[in-house]
Design goal:
It is a single chain. Strands 4, 5, 6, 7, 8, 11 and 12 form a seven-stranded antiparallel beta sheet that branches. The chain is built from six helices and twelve strands. The protein folds into three domains: 35 residues; 79 residues; 174 residues, no CATH class. 17% of the residues are buried. The chain is of the alpha+beta class and 323 residues long. The longest helix is centred in the first third of the chain and has 83 residues.
Length: 323
């Protein structure tokens, strides 16, 4: 390769390469680079060297990756073999321990039987085994099936707390809250007096039991002091069982959380209750087909809902007029 000049022969300024030309940045003169055969050969050899270098780097990278993968596989296999050896040792130790326990247990049992035989005592207590079998059988019975109406009637403390919970729930959900009734006009009613429990039933299944209270609630028309209405609700406690602690043994327990269940066809949503006591009984008691039902007789519980306040006041007014 021949270089004609590194500086511009016209002005002496440095030359800049642009393609196959040398260009002066000052005066703009340009000069052609004269390549010969040796330059072409040199360029070809340079490209071949670069390609060879690239192939070498690629092969080197492939070999390094192959080595790394083989090393990781070797380490993983070594860990697996070590883990398997540890498992075999553990299993062997457990088997040896079991054999040891069975061997000594056998001879201890033989010694115990011989000791009992020398003392003239029986090794097996038949009565005790029968009692254990009976106890085991009893534990398989659902605890909800063990509770009967007679148990509830006999536990006065439980029933007092159950009734108090039900009445408290009625007051909490209804005291001071207005309900509406649409007849000829929209009327507003507020609960008056005490809610009265007029019937009680025990519903029982293997999965749950319920002590259902049927409650009569009296409402007064806010715009008519002579317009009293009685509606009916079914409230219940569930999962009643016998206690399992020293303090609650042979006593009934539950969480005393009150729920309602009026059943299908026994709800008047304007009152959030049933307006027909017979329909409420059919829905909330007879309609619960997953349960067996039995009446619970409680002191001072009437067979029919109590008289409304309006009927009571009407009788008092009649008696005053007669006097």
């Amino acid at each position: 390769m021949k270089l004609q000049s590194l500086n511009c022969p016209n002005c002496g300024s440095p030359l800049k390469t642009e393609g196959n030309m040398q260009v002066c940045e000052s005066c703009g003169s340009s000069f052609k680079i004269d390549y010969d055969d040796s330059d072409v050969a040199y360029e070809r050899l340079s490209k071949e060297d670069e390609l060879a270098r690239q192939r070498f780097e690629h092969e080197k990278e492939m070999l390094e990756t192959e080595y790394r993968l083989k090393e990781e596989a070797r380490i993983k296999q070594a860990k697996y073999e070590k883990s398997e050896q540890r498992k075999k040792k553990t299993a062997g130790a457990i088997k040896a321990l079991i054999v040891y326990v069975l061997f000594f247990g056998f001879w201890i049992g033989i010694g115990f039987i011989a000791y009992k035989a020398i003392k003239g005592e029986s090794v097996f207590n038949i009565d005790k085994l029968a009692e254990m079998a009976e106890t085991t059988t009893e534990t398989t019975v659902s605890p909800y099936l063990l509770v009967t109406p007679a148990d509830i009637e006999a536990d006065k403390d439980f029933m007092d707390n159950a009734i108090a919970s039900v009445l408290s729930e009625v007051h909490t959900s209804r005291d001071g809250k207005t309900v509406t009734a649409w007849e000829e006009n929209l009327n507003y009613f507020t609960m008056v007096g005490e809610p009265e429990i007029y019937d009680c039933y025990l519903l029982t299944s293997e999965d749950e039991n319920r002590l259902v209270f049927l409650v009569a609630i009296t409402y007064l028309n806010n715009d008519d002091e002579d317009d009293y209405r009685v509606v009916y609700d079914a409230l219940y406690l569930r999962n009643i069982t016998f206690g399992n602690t020293m303090a609650t043994k042979d006593k009934l327990v539950c969480d005393y959380s009150v729920r309602d269940e009026r059943g299908e066809g026994a709800t008047d949503w304007s009152w959030v209750a049933a307006t027909d006591s017979d329909q409420l009984y059919r829905s909330a008691i007879l309609g619960m087909t997953d349960f067996e039902n039995a009446k619970v007789n409680l002191p001072e519980i009437k067979d029919v809902p109590v008289e409304t306040v309006a009927e009571t006041e009407a009788e008092e007014d009649y008696e005053e007029e007669e006097d």
